[in-house]
Amino acid sequence: MEAAALRVLLVEDSLSDAALLQEALGEDRNGAFHFTLAETWAEAAERLEENAFDVMLLDLSLPDIAGKETFLRARATAPQLPILVLTGQTDEAVGLEAVRHGVQDYLIKGQAFGRQTARAIRYAIERKQAEIALKQAETSLQRERDQLEERVRERTAELSDANRALHEEILRRTRAEQAHREILRRLTAAEETERGRISRELHDRLSQDLTAIKLGLQIVRQKRACPPTVRQSAAKLEALADSLMQDTHRLAWELRPAALDDFGLEMALRRHVDEWTALTKVPVDFDSRGSTPRRLPPELETVLYRITREALTNVSRHAEARRVSVLLDRRPDHVLLIVEDDGKGFDATTLLGAPATAGKLGLLGMKERAALAGGSVEIESNPGAGTTVFARLPLAVEKAA
Description:
Elements lengths: L5 E6 L3 H12 L6 E6 L2 H10 L4 E5 L8 H10 L5 E5 L4 H9 L4 E4 L6 H108 L5 H28 L2 H5 L2 H16 L3 E6 L8 H22 L4 E7 L3 E8 L6 H6 L7 H12 L3 E6 L5 E8 L7
């Protein structure tokens, strides 16, 4: 299949030069050329409006225009068309000027007619097509870049809005969590206050009343005129009153030991450890370090006391331990409580990661109490390796006077 003839607009006022050029190109074996001749620039402009061409061969000396103005006018009229300048002068400066203004090449008349001209024409067409393709690619790339930048701006705005909304949600949840913690703290404080009130009521009133009943029964029982049956009944009632007094004392202590308010955490823990040992028959090593004449804040003393009680309760219920140690260590910026046993232990990771069950409510309670005081509770345990509870509560750093 033969290639289509290249459409050439030849702008040349010398008919002999035009004929010579057409004859020389007619001998080209690589394809045919179809010429349209224009002898003036005005005629060439009309041809450009009427027809489509593949290339323009332009003489720089025409009746109606000459020199640099010729290729400037041609370049402005047909910016997409490959242009080759024909000149009878061997002025390289003119040729370079033409190339700088977008002309593909320039040919010297009488030297370049022939196969060299055909190659130059084809090369000019290919180069112009490459330039057009490059500009189109650059335009397309710039358009895609602009679209990408626009999408980036839109996405950035969306992300900014999302981040703003997320930040507001975090603030809202933080405030809600702080409010929730404050409510829990107040409820815990109110619970401890009520525990203390009931404990004092049991100790101060009920215990005294039971003591009075016991003394009255003793008086009745010791009277000589008292019948034996009454004396026996009085002895039973006296024993019952004594048992009620012990139960009342125990309940008052469990609700809130008076020693915690009167003498501080260390004394309350020592008394609780002694009573726990007497009840469970499991020895406890208690050690207090770093103590100072100044007591801990009441809230922290209550939290540490409750955590210790809960930890020892768990030991008595589940650990099957033979020995327990309790360490209270006061540092400059925090207080550390460690309760350790040599019992059967458990899989702490699995239990603490499981849904809430009766077996972990006490552990969660310890963690919650510590969290309300700004601290933390960590539990280390493995089957057969015992259990250790670490409670760490922060202390306000005292500034030097």
